[in-house]
Amino acid sequence: MSNTLGLPAKTCEIDRLITNSKDIEKVLAGKKTATRRNGRYADPGGRMVLKGHSFIVERVYEQTLGELTETMALQEGYVSVEEYKNSILSSHPGMRWLPQMKIWVHEFSPEEETTE
Fold it and tell me: Among the four residues 18, 36, 100, 115, which has the most C-beta atoms within 10 Å?
């Protein structure tokens, strides 16, 4: 089943998108602006709150692990694809890095604060 955006149904809720404390700190420091998951956790426009700070999901799209570039690794808060790969594999015992494996990219930015 897909939604009005043409995307398949979410496999998890947005509050589960980023739960690792190191990743949360990277987001809050502005060093992480995207996260990749094996399922779709949010729609574009979705709001994620981390330690009282709001972030808006701007883009959600599918790609393969083999398409990951150094620039994309930087979005994830890592200095290289190799560092990102090692982190993912160490946190998911038994996982194999398969270039053809499809993943969902969630790109986000801080929500603009308004003053009234």
Answer: 18
Instruction: Locate the domains of the chain by residue range.
Output: 14-110
User: Cβ of 28: how many Cβ atoms within 10 Å?
Assistant: 15
What pLDDT is recorded for position 6?
84
pTM of the predicted protein model: 0.90
The conformation of residue 85, written as its DSSP 8-state character, comes to H
CATH architecture of 14-110: Roll (3.10)
Low-confidence residues of the chain: pLDDT under 50: 1-2
Using a 10 angstrom Cβ sphere, with 0-12 exposed, 13-18 middle and 19 or more buried, the burial of residue 116 is exposed
Residue 46: left if φ>0, alpha if ψ -120 to 50, beta else—which one? beta
Reduce the DSSP state of residue 22 to 3 states and report it: helix
